[in-house]
Each structure stands twice: as structure tokens, then as C-alpha cells.
Write a structure and sequence with these properties.
The chain is mostly beta strands. Helices cover 9% and strands 49% of the residues. It is elongated, with a radius of gyration of 25 Å. About 2% of the residues have low confidence.
């Protein structure tokens, strides 16, 4: 029923009638790549709106512009070989809806912006190019602040704020000055067949969904300098909810798929499937509730990852930031509920954010355990190389810190899965492969309660003290394991946890001790 309702919503988006075609050159726009066309393009959009709506046509050519605002019932249509070029002067951009992002930087300037609009869209086989590298080069000549402070003054490529019925289809979005596309507190969004190539400056997120509902994303190809597909909630007033994602390719200098870090409201009823993540520099899948978000009813399935750094990070933290000062208030620590990751195959690169690579990190904080997660049919290939000394490291709690893999590094005491401050975690069908020997355990559990790990396949290693280490934990169930190689003991644990570990139908190397 839920899927049927979504189909009806998205059919409604497609059914909006656009009455009139308006050519931007009719209002004086010049396709020479040098003339500033901001006024001419805005006149064409305003005229189209005054006639009840329609399509504003961008013909073949290069059209230079600053900030352009959408109007109700107007769609921008780009013909083949049409290019909209963003000005390289930051003074040509306006900030219609200012806010503060997760690192505390004031942002919101944009090339294309829609605030409180309905029935709008971008379509066609043209290109929108923010000229981000040239923009940055010009910007730093006049703004002498450190880059970490000044980047927010540069414009997003596309901003959609509190809008209803939005279609972005078939176009290419290239080289933003900051985030490539940001959709905030909007409903009924269709993003389809969009190609993004946005690298060259920092913070080039690809597709950013911020507190939006009834969203469908499909058949997109994203190469981004920052997170490729990222869900945020920079306000507590509207969750990311009722979202489907399928058949997308994601390459990123940060994460492939990410929820958070800005995470004040929830992430609910989100279904992501059939995606390919490759060549990411800071994580494959990252689910992060650190500002109060509930991550609930989320399924990520049928994902292939190649050449990624740290395939999975799940984090429940208590940073508890507020991003829209004076408009919002601090939230209590959030939670995970009914989060499923299944049918995932990942290959790690040799060099990651950590001294020795780890496949999966799951961590809450003291008094707030991360719970309600199921991992099913997971296969991860890792480089190995971990040492026995790395097992005894104290991993930082970082309770109120920005949540990244490196936040918990540089050393993690397991090569496969490290879980701390967790409860009610179910893992079914977990397999690791190693390209070289690793002396760390496959699993390291600390302050874990009610945890099931069933049908795990653990590769051969030589000289490791154990396959599993368990500390301060209760009701740990290991069932149907296949363990290869020569390991002194299956489990190293403290005395209090030992009686809380339950073993059933595990196939172990001959003469291996169960406990040490």
C-alpha cells in the first residue's frame, strides 16, 4: 500500500501541465559565455509565471548568470548543448534562506534557488555548470579568511526550500562552488537520470536531501568531491521520510551513502537498493544520528562497493547541535530502530583512514546504546595487516564530536566488525576475506547486550590470539560459524562476560580452544 501511495504521488508530479514555452533569448539572453544574463533569464521566468506557467527554454549556447529564482508552475528546459554557467564572482549570488551547516559555517547562497514554490522543475539534456574552481580562485583573492571559514560564501548549484512537486530530470549538474544540490523541507520530489560531476573544491556534496518527504531518486550517476548521496536534517521540524532510491552510481571523496551528520529530525521509511558505490575516500555507507535523530525503518539492500575506505559506519552520538539559531532548540539523543543492511558486497582499498583497515564500525555512547540493527548477507574483502598490539588500543568515545571513521582511529581492535555500546543487534550471514594476514580478531564486542551473530565465515589467519574478543557484555550468541586457519582460541573475554556467551553449531579448526 505504501509503495502504491508513493507511485500516485510521483505520478502527480509528472502530470503537472506546463502551458507555454518561453525562450530566454527573447528577453535578451546572450549565448556567448561572457554576457551576464541574470536579469534576462529572470525576466523570462517571471513572464512565464505571469502567463500561468510553462517551460523556460535554454537553447544551445553558454549562458552566464548569477542567482536565478524559480516561480510557481515554471520548469527550466535545457536543449542539447545548452549550458548555464555560474558567475565566478561571489557578489553575483544571493542568499534567500540563510542557515548554518554541520561545521558551523553560514551558508545558503545559490545559483538556482526556489523558496516556497510549487510545481517546478529542471529537465532536458543540457548542463548547469557552477565553474566552482574558477569561482574559488577569484574568491580567495578578495576573502583572506581561512578556507574552512570562507567556503560557505560560495554558492550551491541548486537549492530547493519548502517546495512542493519538484522534478529534476535528465540534466547534468557540474562543478558547484559548494553543495551541488540541496533540497530542504520539500515534498513530492522526483530526481531521475541526473548526472553529477562536481569536484575541484571542498564541500561538493552531490545530492543532499534535508528534511524532505515523498522523494524518489533513480538512475542517477554521481561523482562528487564530498558526500555523493547525503540525507540531512538541519531542522528538528521535519524528518527525511518516505524516500525511495534505486539504481544509482556513486563515487565520492567522502561517503557514498550517508545519513547525518546534521541529524536533528528523523530519517524514516527510507528504502535504498541496487546501488554501486566505488572509489570513495571516507566510507561506503554511513548512518549517523548525533543531533537527536531517530533512524527508523531504513533498508539499504543490494549494494556493491569497490575500492572503498571503511565500508560501513553506524554511529549514535550526543553532539546535539542546533543549526538554525533562534529558530530551533536542542534535541535529546536519538536512536536506531528497524534498520536493515542486507545483500552487501564490499572490497576495501589497501590504505584507509585507519592504520589497519576495518570493515564495519558500530558504536553508541555510554548510557545510549545503538540498537535495532540487522545486518544480513554481508561480504567484505579487506587488506589485512593488523598487528597484535592494535588489539589493546582504547578507542576514543568522542561523545560530542563530529562523527567520522577517523574520529575513532587511528586504530580499531578488529579487522571485521567492531561494536561498542550496542544492544539488540542481529547479524545473519557475515563473511570476511583477507588479502594478507591480520592478527586482530574478526569481531570485537564491548558493552554489547543481546547480540546474535549467525552463519559467519571467518578466513584463515595465522598466529592470532582469537577470532572474537568480548568485554563487559551479556547475552552474546554465536551460531553456525565456520572458522578457518590456526587461532589459539575462538574467544578472548573477561570473566564476567564468559558465562554470557552462548555457542551453537560452530565449525572450528581442530584442537582450537573455545575460551582464553
Amino acid at each position: 500500500m505504501k509503495k502504491l501511495i508513493l507511485l500516485i504521488w510521483f505520478a502527480g508530479i509528472a502530470a503537472v501541465v506546463y502551458a507555454e514555452d518561453v525562450l530566454i533569448t527573447r528577453f535578451g539572453a546572450k549565448p556567448d559565455g561572457h554576457t551576464m544574463n541574470t536579469v534576462a533569464i529572470q525576466k523570462a521566468i517571471d513572464y512565464c509565471y505571469s502567463k500561468g506557467g510553462g517551460r523556460v527554454i535554454f537553447p544551445k549556447g553558454d549562458f552566464l548568470t548569477g542567482t536565478i529564482e524559480f516561480r510557481d508552475n515554471v520548469k527550466l528546459h535545457f536543449e542539447k548543448d545548452a549550458r548555464l554557467l555560474g558567475s565566478t564572482n561571489v557578489e553575483d549570488y544571493r542568499n534567500v534562506d540563510p542557515f548554518t551547516e554541520g561545521l558551523g559555517i553560514d551558508v545558503g547562497w545559490a545559483l538556482l534557488v526556489a523558496v516556497d514554490r510549487k510545481n517546478i522543475g529542471i529537465e532536458g539534456h543540457g548542463v548547469i555548470d557552477g565553474q566552482g574552481s574558477a569561482l574559488k580562485a577569484a574568491h580567495i583573492l578578495q576573502d583572506t579568511r581561512p578556507e574552512g571559514q570562507r567556503w560557505g560564501r560560495r554558492p550551491f548549484l541548486l537549492r530547493v526550500v519548502r517546495c512542493n512537486n519538484v522534478t529534476v530530470k535528465d540534466v547534468s549538474l557540474n562543478y558547484a562552488g559548494a553543495w551541488t544540490s540541496h533540497y530542504f523541507q520539500s515534498r513530492n520530489i522526483l530526481i531521475q537520470n541526473v548526472k553529477i560531476r562536481s569536484v575541484g573544491v571542498a564541500h561538493n556534496d552531490g545530492i543532499g536531501i534535508d528534511g524532505c518527504q515523498k522523494v524518489a531518486i533513480s538512475n542517477c550517476d554521481v561523482v562528487s568531491g564530498d558526500d555523493a548521496l547525503v540525507f540531512k536534517t538541519t531542522s528538528s521540524k521535519m524528518a527525511c521520510k518516505d524516500i525511495t532510491v534505486k539504481n544509482i552510481r556513486l563515487k565520492s571523496n567522502q561517503a557514498g551513502i550517508k545519513m547525518g551528520t546534521e541529524s536533528m529530525a528523523g530519517f524514516e521509511n527510507i528504502d535504498i537498493k541496487n546501488c554501486y558505490i566505488y572509489d570513495t575516500k571516507n566510507g561506503g555507507i554511513k548512518l549517523l544520528s548525533v543531533d537527536g535523530a531517530r533512524i527508523k525503518n531504513v533498508t539499504i539492500a543490494d549494494i556493491k562497493m569497490d575500492d572503498v575506505r571503511t565500508p560501513v559506519l553506524l554511529r549514535l552520538g550526543s553532539r546535539l547541535n542546533v543549526f538554525r539559531k533562534g529558530q530551533d532548540q536542542q534535541q535529546p539523543t536519538g536512536y536506531f530502530e528497524n534498520v536493515v543492511l542486507k545483500n552487501i558486497k564490499a572490497v576495501s582499498v589497501d590504505s584507509t583512514q585507519l592504520k589497519s583497515a576495518t570493515g564495519i564500525l558500530i558504536t553508541g555512547v555510554p548510557n545510549h546504546k545503538l540498537s535495532g540493527v540487522t545486518l544480513e548477507n554481508i561480504l567484505i574483502e579487506l587488506p589485512g595487516g593488523g598487528t597484535a598490539e592494535e588489539i589493546n588500543v582504547n578507542v576514543p568515545e568522542a561523545i560530542d564530536q563530529y562523527p567520522e571513521v577517523k574520529t575513532f582511529g587511528p586504530v580499531i581492535p578488529a579487522y571485521g566488525l567492531w561494536a561498542r555500546h550496542v544492544k539488540d543487534i542481529k547479524i545473519k550471514g557475515l563473511q570476511f576475506r583477507l588479502r594478507s594476514n591480520d592478527l586482530r580478531p574478526a569481531l570485537f564486542l564491548q558493552d554489547a547486550t543481546n547480540m546474535l551473530v549467525r552463519d559467519a565465515v571467518i578466513p584463515a589467519t595465522e598466529g592470532a590470539a582469537s577470532t572474537v574478543q568480548v568485554k563487559q557484555s551479556a547475552n552474546i550468541n554465536l551460531q553456525g560459524w565456520k572458522v578457518y586457519g590456526s587461532i589459539r582460541s575462538l574467544i578472548v573475554t573477561d570473566e564476567a562476560s564468559r558465562s554470557q556467551i552462548h555457542l551453537e553449531k560452530n565449525r572450528l579448526p581442530r584442537d582450537q580452544n573455545l575460551f582464553q
